[in-house]
Structures are given as C-alpha cells and as structure tokens.
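User: Show me a protein chain along with its predicted structure.
Assistant: Here is one chain, sequence first, then structure tokens.
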Amino acid sequence: MRELSLDHLRTLVAIADLGSLANAARALHLAAPTVTVQIAELESRLGGQLLVRGRGPAQPTALGERFIARARRLLADADDAVEDVRRQLAGQTGRVRVGASTGAIAHLLPPALERLARDHPGIEVNVQVLTSNDSMARLAAGSLDLAVVALPQPPVRGVHVTPLRREAVLAFLPAAWKAPKRLTPQWLADRPLIMNDASTRLYRQTAEWFSAAGVHCRPRIELNYNDAIRTLVAAGYGAALLPEEADGRAPDPRVAVRPLSPALWRQLGLAVGDRDVGGPTRFVLEVLQASKGRGGPGE
C-alpha cells in the first residue's frame, strides 16, 4: 500500500464533521469531483469502505469510525509538528548549546538562565564546561551554539565575538598575611601562588602581568575552579589572582582581597557561530547581554 496522504485524511475528517462530500468540498476549497476521487483512493489503499454514501448524509462505517479517530490524531500530530518548527524558527522553542568555564557557570549564567526560563520557557539550554579555546573550536565545528570566552581571541572563521564586560583581577590572600594595601608583582612573586592552569586565558594574562614587571611567577598549584582556589586561600595555602566577584555571598573572614598595582583587567566576550545568530540562540544572547550578575570564570 502506498503512503497515506494527509490531504486525503483531512478530506475524510471534513466529510465526517460536515455530513457530506459537497460540504467538505466547499470547506476545503476543492472541486466536488476531487473530494470523490480522494475518498475513493483512500478506500482503495486501505482495502475497505470508510463511508456510506447515499441520498442522506454521508455516514462512517464501523471501519470508518475507527479510522477517522486515528486520522484525527495523525492530523493533530502533523499540525503540532508544523507549529513546533514554526516556533523554533521564531526562536520561541529549541535547544541552545552553551560553552563556559566553571566560574561563568557558577556566577554569570544563573541570573541569565533564570530570566530566560521566565521569558522564554520553551528554550532549553545545554551548558558544557569548556575553556575558551575549546569553545572557539567547537563553535567553528558547529557542535556549539554560543560561548562565554575570555578576550582577546584570535579570529576563527565562522565565529563572531563581541565584548560582554570587563572585570578587575584582584589578589586573594590569607587574612593572616601582613600585606600592603596594593599588591605588586614583586611582592606576590615571593609568596606561594595558586593559579588557573596554563590552558586558560587568565593564566596567560597573569603570567604576562608578572613578566612585564621583570619577575617570574611559580604557582604552587594550578586549578580551574575558582571556588576551590578560594578555599585553598582561606586555608592559608597561598595567594591567588582572580576576577572580582560580587555574587551576594558574605566575604570569608579568612580571606583578604587587595587591588593590584599596576591594575589588571580581564575582558569577557560572547562568541557565536555565524550560522546560529537567529532562532533561540538570539534570546540566550539577549539575556546574557542584559544580565547584571557579576561572575568570575576561571579563564
């Protein structure tokens, strides 16, 4: 049997609802002979009679009643599928794959995702923990839609990057240490340091900050999770250079925070594949750009 036509099913349901082939033809804007041919083809394909047609209203046979009930569900499913595609094309539903560091996930994304869930509940966000380099590569390959990355980034074909915000990098050190009000590279280089690992942009920025002052930093340990770094600082294990965070948490009395001299800044950006700027991705971009939460991604 050849595949069923949705047009034929729609015609059958219209006849059942309106009582005659003529009424169905008018409602569907079809010629009466076309309706007759469609029903005849449908019955031929199924191998059974669906309608009793005479001088009175067209009546479904027992076979027709059962088939019409299934036809209604098939048509409803088809309409739902079309509407779902339309909603996805309009950006009202869909899945957006977002890459970010652990710090961005912990401090930058939550307020943005909360707003997204309120304003666009049909959009699902899949968050992946990635470095900026990994995010840029996946955006270029098409396996990621959007990423929060540390700037600057070398140009990557097919990926567009826009600045998001600038954050001050501060020194976090055990409160028991005697330290000046502003910390220099020379002062910090003589202390045990806890840093992000060498694959991150923040590590490179920090190393360049020390190098510009003519000193070399030797980290005692390298981690990519800022909350863990702060815990080690609180335990007196060493000092760390991290982005400023204002996430509403009470300050840890075991940790002192000092500005740097010279000042050090970390710039964050939003990277998106050129093919993904429409649909639901644009709504995720909007909530990230509008988010007022402060974060500290470890890159």
